[in-house]
Design brief:
The chain is of the alpha+beta class and 88 residues long. It has one domain: Double Stranded RNA Binding Domain (2-Layer Sandwich). A three-stranded antiparallel beta sheet has the order 1-2-3. A hairpin with a 4-residue loop joins strand 2 and strand 3. The longest helix is centred in the last third of the chain and has 32 residues. The two termini are 21 Å apart.
């Protein structure tokens, strides 16, 4: 979270990412596992309707964005909780 504006920024999210791993299941599903700096793991997925439609690169891009967007949700919750606790 940006300490000056108290916002969750894309740069903040990217700085939290420690590692990214991809897993493909039956050429139908790509799963992205993002591990953030505290060790917590967030998963994103990208399903394909049929193996003939499977595109590894596209599956990785989509599953990464799904997982990365979840980090925004977690960090937004954390920031909102912080503001709430400070207002008491």
């Amino acid at each position: 979270m940006d300490k000056i504006t108290h916002k969750v920024t894309p740069e903040h999210i990217d700085n939290l990412i420690k590692s990214v791993d991809y897993h493909v299941i039956n050429n139908l599903l790509t799963i992205c596992c993002i591990t953030i700096e505290n060790g917590f793991q967030i998963f994103g997925e990208s399903p394909s309707a049929t193996p003939s439609n499977f595109d590894k690169k596209l599956g990785e891009e989509i599953s990464f964005e799904v997982a990365r967007n979840k980090i925004f949700e977690f960090e937004g919750y954390h920031l909102k909780k912080k503001f709430y606790e400070e207002s008491k």
